[in-house]
């Protein structure tokens, strides 16, 4: 993901217009050229901002139609067990791995601040990884952490949960989870070596510590052919 301030500002401009309903799900956003002229910015930065918002599932891209505000699903199911991807892989007898694509301190967007309840000018760490099972890619992970000092070794294959649990303020005790089906996302599908017709499953989680404060926002994309979720539901 980009660490450029110009890209963050373009994202914020778009997010503000999503929030006030200037941009809606039923008509495309202005073109990259129109946005660049309106904001007096270079078109490459506009394209990068739009692609990041697609990756973060605030926008969707339709072939030959442009960018649209992503439709918010009406229903979702929570996952009842809080488990790391590493544990999930190893329980099936595979060797868990992690390929770090990038890890950078970034200025949080308006949406990041809302989700992570940030009220000051701090940076966050944005971590991009590919999780592997026996060296085969199974998940793309975009993690946003409320601590710009956290740096992982590029050879580190330990679960992020295991790293954070050694810091009292980051010990995760709960998470709010949403699951969504994604038909295709060019950047991520390519990273995961998906077939053209293969869909993705997005697991979006807000992790909180013992004080009920959000410390980690995760967007985990799984190859649909390699993952399924079991949810325990009880009659109340």
From TrEMBL:
Tagged with keyword Transcription: yes
Annotated GO MF terms: DNA binding; DNA-binding transcription factor activity
Stored Pfam families: GntR, UTRA
Membrane-crossing segments per the record: none
Keyword tags: DNA-binding, Transcription, Transcription regulation
HTH gntR-type domain mapped to chain residues: 4-72
DNA-binding is among the record's keywords: yes
Coiled coil, from the record: none
InterPro entries: Bact_HTH_transcr_reg (IPR050679), Chorismate_lyase_/UTRA_dom_sf (IPR028978), Tscrpt_reg_HTH_GntR (IPR000524), UTRA (IPR011663), WH-like_DNA-bd_sf (IPR036388), WH_DNA-bd_sf (IPR036390)
Gene3D superfamilies: Chorismate lyase-like (3.40.1410.10), Winged helix-like DNA-binding domain superfamily/Winged helix DNA-binding domain (1.10.10.10)
GO BP terms: negative regulation of DNA-templated transcription
PANTHER family linked: GNTR-FAMILY TRANSCRIPTIONAL REGULATOR, MANNOSYL-D-GLYCERATE TRANSPORT/METABOLISM SYSTEM REPRESSOR MNGR-RELATED
Name by which UniProt lists this protein: GntR family transcriptional regulator
Species annotation: Macrococcus brunensis
